[in-house]
């Protein structure tokens, strides 16, 4: 039987067209994508499409659009073998991270892709990205999907979605997963690294989640950062959690006021998660005194989490109204392959 794939077009450059008068890129009707890709029909899969109306630039997206995508997947889950989400690249890593938590017990591929150049342009990267994403979403072995995960496929990389960051605004090769290897080697053939791919318990049905709390912030430390600035962030109204981007393996300056502000915040129930500003590697607060003092002040480790993932995971867990201790515990639990608890660096 033909594999059936649902393409969910949310927006982004891939479906854009140049306004001939202003030269500005504008969202276009999804029909444009089909018109420019007769190859879609040749693939040999039953491909259907659903389009966001209006199509969105991914900078406009947030929990509401994440829920919209999840609702489409959940409503159509039994009808399709896999899903391809066409999405703007700018916040694709946030959406893919959020979906990895929202789609509990996922047993079918959800492959995000997009492009740096509109699909209507001669040198577009959109066509290849879309065709390969469809192939990955349709891939099965012994009738079982090969990649039952939320992934980003871009250029030649198949990456676990919640491990990715957008690292280049110009290049076709726009995404990286620094702390987890690629899930496939993509050349003439697609060679899946099956030992790296997450396998769900097949007896568990998909459970879609729709709850988020956005009272979170990402704070990047820098040399010379002022007490007044940190204090105003830590005292923001309704703030529930902070992703603190620290130096190296999780270090912060040994300033008594900083430790006081953090201890006070954690005593008030605010969760402070430590992740590194470095692109690769993990937080290890017990390595230096400058990290140890954060641990003593109640900061929890974000291990090797990306900022996108730490933030969306907090929003997801806080949305479920769990006790603070439970959110802290789950932040230190690997829920969807998002953190390495015992890194081998
Ligand atoms: N601004 C666009 C977006 O993220 C860029 C892209 O699609 O690559 O929606």
Description:
The chain is of the alpha/beta class. The protein has ten helices and 20 strands. Strand 8 (140-141) and strand 9 form a beta hairpin. The chain is globular. Helices cover 28% and strands 21% of the residues. Strands 4-1-5-7-10-11-14-15 form an eight-stranded mixed sheet, sandwiched between helices. The chain has a four-stranded parallel sheet with strand order 17-18-19-20, sandwiched between helices. A two-stranded antiparallel ribbon has the order 2-3. The model has no long low-confidence stretch (mean pLDDT 93). Aspartic acid binds at residues 11-13, 57-59, 88-90, 114, 116.
In brief:
This protein has 345 residues and is α/β, with parallel strands linked by helices.
Bound small molecules, by name, code or SMILES, are: aspartic acid
Q: Which strand order spans the largest sheet, edge to edge or round the barrel?
A: 4-1-5-7-10-11-14-15
Helix content: 25-40%
Q: Please provide the ordered H/E string of secondary-structure elements.
A: EEEHHEHEHEEHEEEEEEEEEEHEHEHEHH
By oligomeric state, this entry counts as single chain
Proportion of β residues? 15-25%
What summary fits the major beta sheet? 8 strands, mixed
Distance N to C terminus: 45 Å
Determine the number of helices (DSSP H or I, runs of at least 4 residues): 10
For the CA atoms, what is the radius of gyration?
A: 21 Å
Q: What global shape is seen?
A: globular
Ranges where pLDDT stays below 50 over 5 or more residues in a row are none
The assigned structural class equals alpha/beta
What's the count of strands?
20
Residue-averaged pLDDT: 93
